[in-house]
Specification:
eight-stranded mixed β-sheet, globular, 205 residues, 25% helix
Length: 205
């Protein structure tokens, strides 16, 4: 297994990735509230009979960071320096979230990647940059071989992200994830480290 490196902060231009913190609750909740209708069709939900139990944001953040220290996931928030009044990097606002989950070592060495962005910041190249940074970190620092992204066929904005970065379409998985209250079909996109040359950040404009 690769050496666990957490916390990790990544930056390219005006886009940053930093760990989700227990103190991010109010800013995270405000962003989610502003974007309820924008995000609802793509949000994960609990299937009938699931009993994972409700928990606070602070408990979730602490649990995810604990898992990150064990090398199981990377819970990042996306920050943006191009926002009005952003100031120093430490003050860049939270504009979205990117999570690398299901990290597996051994003979597999793969993970899956998911993300969302505040609607008011969509279309600025923020998410492609965040995905590129996270994927390169997984390949070149953690030593993973494969990064996979699952996207609903109706999610045109998210499909543009993987297409822009050159992810390979591998097919559809019927009723793959429980999203917006039901099991939904997803398209699977992936890249292996041998396919990316110097990395995805190098592909950005």
């Amino acid at each position: 297994m690769a050496v666990v490196q957490w916390p990790v902060e990544l930056k390219h231009g005006q886009v940053g990735l930093r760990p989700l913190r227990a103190g991010d609750g109010s800013e995270w909740a405000a962003a989610r509230q502003r974007n309820v209708s924008w995000l609802r069709p793509w949000d994960a939900t609990q299937p009938p009979g699931a009993d994972d139990g409700a928990r606070t944001f602070r408990a979730m953040a602490r649990d995810w960071n604990r898992q990150a220290r064990y090398g199981r996931m990377l819970p990042f928030v996306i920050t943006y320096g191009g926002a009005a009044g952003a100031g120093a990097r430490s003050k860049w606002p939270l504009v979205g979230q990117l999570t690398v989950s299901g990290i597996t070592y051994g003979s597999a060495r793969w993970a899956n990647l998911g993300y969302w962005v505040d609607e008011q910041y969509a279309g600025r190249g923020i998410v492609p940059t965040a995905v590129a940074m996270a994927a390169d970190h997984c390949w070149f620092t953690l030593g993973l071989h494969r990064i996979e992204v699952a996207i609903r066929p109706e999610n045109k904005a998210s499909l543009r992200v993987v297409e822009k970065l050159g992810f390979r379409f591998e097919g559809e998985r019927p009723r793959f994830l429980h999203i917006d209250g039901d099991w939904r079909d997803h398209r699977i996109f992936a890249l292996n480290v041998e396919e990316v040359g110097p990395g995805l950040v190098a592909r950005l404009p």
